[in-house]
Amino acid sequence: MQALREKIAAADGLVFATPEYNFSVSGVLKNVIDWASRPPDQPFNDKAVAIMGASGGVLGTPRAQYHLRQIGIFLNMRFVNKPEVFVGSAASKFDAAGNLTDETAKGLIKQLMAELVTWSNRLKKT
């Protein structure tokens, strides 16, 4: 766990790509965040963070992403707000090898990553 905490602390920004389980984030993701954030010096503080997700449902992962934002507020994560990336009906948007084929989703992910870089650089200056 210490190695993970060190990598999080050293990162300029973080990307969470999450599915949605029972209207929330997976228990595994929640546990990793909980364990990594234990004192002293939790590594998520003031960290630039982007979120995206894909699911088999039509909506994508809005509830999981909202819950992740709620978790992150307590840890003082600094989320990129736009664009939101919800890849719904994921089975039709990935090929058999797991490659994303949906051009709209690809464009939104590219925008999200650009915003993460901008946000991370802005946070470093403050």
If you consult CATH, what is the topology? Rossmann fold
Low-confidence stretches: none
- Helical percent range? 40-55%
| The CATH homology group name | Flavodoxin domain
- CATH class term: Alpha Beta
Rg from Cα: 15 Å
Shape: globular
Number of domains: 1
Descriptors:
126 residues, alpha/beta, Rossmann fold, four-stranded parallel beta sheet, 4 helices, 4 strands
Structure notes:
The mean pLDDT is 96. The protein has one domain (2-125): Flavodoxin domain (Rossmann fold). The chain contains four helices and four strands. It has 126 residues and is α/β, with parallel strands linked by helices. β2 (48-54), α3 and β3 form a beta-alpha-beta unit.
Question: What's the gist of this structure?
Answer:
The protein is α/β, with parallel strands linked by helices. The protein is 44% helix and 14% strand.
SSE blueprint and pairings:
Elements: H1 2-10, E1 13-18, H2 27-36, E2 48-54, H3 62-74, E3 78-79, E4 85-87, H4 103-125
Parallel strand pairs: 1-2, 2-3, 2-4
